[in-house]
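User: Show me a protein chain along with its predicted structure.
Assistant: Here is one chain, sequence first, then structure tokens.
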Amino acid sequence: MTPSHLIYLHGFRSSPLSTKARLMATWMAAHHPDVVWWCPQLPPSPQAAAELIGQGIANWPRESMAVIGSSLGGFYATWVAEQTRCRAVLLNPAVDPARDLAQHLGEHTLWHRPEERFYFQAEYVDELRALQCGGPRQPENYLCIIARGDELLDWHEMTARYAGARIKLLPAGDHALSDFEDHLGEIVEFLGLS
């Protein structure tokens, strides 16, 4: 079934201006302008991000929506997919962001808008723990694109967390999935958009 609604969730310090988000938005506009596309700027607070996502998809049809998430956005995408049972594409998904981001408290800039600053607060770690949902209950709903060369996240953890899912394990690559365009065909096929 072709999705009627698709949400893209970016990673930590990222934005809708990321290369992957823009490539996906351009592809959707060219090939499926009828599909509702939403790529929100997520706030630094995980609780606020979850509320924004939840409100945005509240009226979306569960049987025909899908989600794509990169890094921390992959963690949020898992949370969405576990609630809605929708299809999910995860790009180097964060498995334990509460543990990983606890080392990054303080002020940060956005990758694509370095003039914009935000503060990652200690309570955000607890908010991440509250959203943790473990491995997928319906792994067949997931496509995970994971790079062995990810310099930030451990590919062993990612593949273990999503055991049973469709996993494309890249022999090298990087955290940003700089070759994202090469995987678009498989992503749109998995989502039913091809």
